[in-house]
Design goal:
Length: about 375
């Protein structure tokens, strides 16, 4: 009851920033109605909903009425604004933001092969968008660019993943408000069988490598075909990690693509190739080995190899020959599920036997024989 004798009903709404929130009503019915509505609001949105200034409530009501003409909601209008709003921070070019992110990756001691891959992708994207302000690059532009390149689905996904990292970084740094790559539909893989080389093809490739000793590619090829090592793992492998006497190769955690240490058995035919070229230490691959591979392709008239064909050949023939998916998965460094989906029954038992019987001929450099 007030001093003048009138009656007011008070509803206590809790505290906001240390201050008590109270509402007053002329009748008990109004107070009880507000209390029930307030309880619902508090349950849904917390105490802040009760403390919303009247000016904001009125503005929200006005905006909602104006948006009704377009059948749009306040949430939709807010999302649209944030999508097209240009950040107030300094405008940055895409190439500068990409370089900034790459520098941070290197500083964080990411693997060199990973950083090199990002640098390559950023360089390709820079040709089209490097001089553009990163806040002005739209999703449809990125989508048209990546599809106009006529890449395979896996390559498209890779480009969107890597370039998307730059845009996500830009959002965190307030260089733009969204990641356009997140709005682009990712393509599915073509339903094509995994490409592999058969025993005869592998034997021919190794024979050619042996009669071109200046390229020094016999060991890298043998490791790829008979140990299933990835190219990025072969590049950093040292002879001290090849234990011929104990018949295993150690792929250390720091050199494994998956960041997990694994042990790969040296099969008898691989051991025969390694013993011919054995060294006490130092890199397994020669300098500029990618250029040497290109030169090798020119010499034998086989410039383009199917992607990861050597590793796929190893997994397929190892799986069939050993008959143990867990063993093959462990040595290849991926899951048994991948084996079931991509490598099951790609080769016959006879193919597998022929594959693991590829040996260098004793004393005859440049020739192969079946043991």
């Amino acid at each position: 009851m007030n001093k003048n004798g009138s009656v007011q009903w008070e509803v206590y709404c809790g505290r906001e920033n240390g201050k008590r929130i109270r509402k007053y009503f002329a009748t008990q019915l109004e107070a009880e109605t507000f209390r029930e509505v307030a309880r619902t609001k508090k349950a849904n949105h917390g105490i802040a909903a009760l403390a919303m200034p009247e000016s904001i409530r009125l503005e929200a009501l006005t905006c909602s009425q104006r948006l009704a003409v377009a059948s749009a909601t306040l949430t939709q209008a807010t999302e649209y604004f944030l999508l097209h709003h240009k950040p107030t921070s300094e405008e940055r070019l895409f190439k500068d933001v990409a370089a900034e992110l790459l520098h941070r990756k290197i500083k964080a001691k990411k693997k060199k092969s990973y950083a090199d891959g990002l640098g390559w992708t950023f360089g390709v994207f820079n040709r089209a968008f490097g001089e553009r302000k990163i806040s002005e690059i739209m999703p449809d532009e990125v989508e048209h660019w990546v599809w106009d390149m006529d890449y395979a689905p896996a390559t498209v996904r890779g480009y969107l993943r890597d370039v998307g990292q730059v845009f996500r970084y830009a959002v965190k740094r307030n260089y733009r408000s969204d990641n356009p790559c997140a709005l682009i539909e990712r393509p599915e893989d073509d339903d094509k069988p995994t490409a592999i080389f058969r025993a005869e093809q592998v034997a021919n490739i190794l024979a050619e490598a042996m009669i071109h000793p200046d390229l020094e590619l016999v060991v890298p090829f043998a490791l790829a075909f008979f140990a299933g090592l990835r190219s990025c793992e072969i590049e950093v492998l040292d002879w001290t990690e090849i234990h011929l006497e104990r018949a295993f190769i150690e792929v250390t955690k720091g050199k494994s693509k998956t960041r997990q240490r694994r042990i790969v058995t040296i099969q008898p035919n691989l051991k025969a190739f390694l013993e011919v070229h054995r060294r006490l230490g130092g890199p397994v691959v020669p300098p500029n080995w990618w250029n040497r591979r290109q030169e090798f392709g020119k010499r034998i008239g086989m410039r383009q190899w199917p992607r990861n064909v050597a590793r796929h050949s190893f997994v397929s023939h190892h799986y069939q020959h050993m008959g143990n998916e867990n063993l093959t998965a462990a040595e290849a460094g991926h899951s048994p599920q991948v084996l079931q989906e991509h490598y099951r029954e790609l080769v016959s038992p006879d193919d597998a036997r022929a594959y693991w019987m590829i040996f260098p001929s004793p004393g005859e450099y440049g020739r192969l024989t079946a043991a």
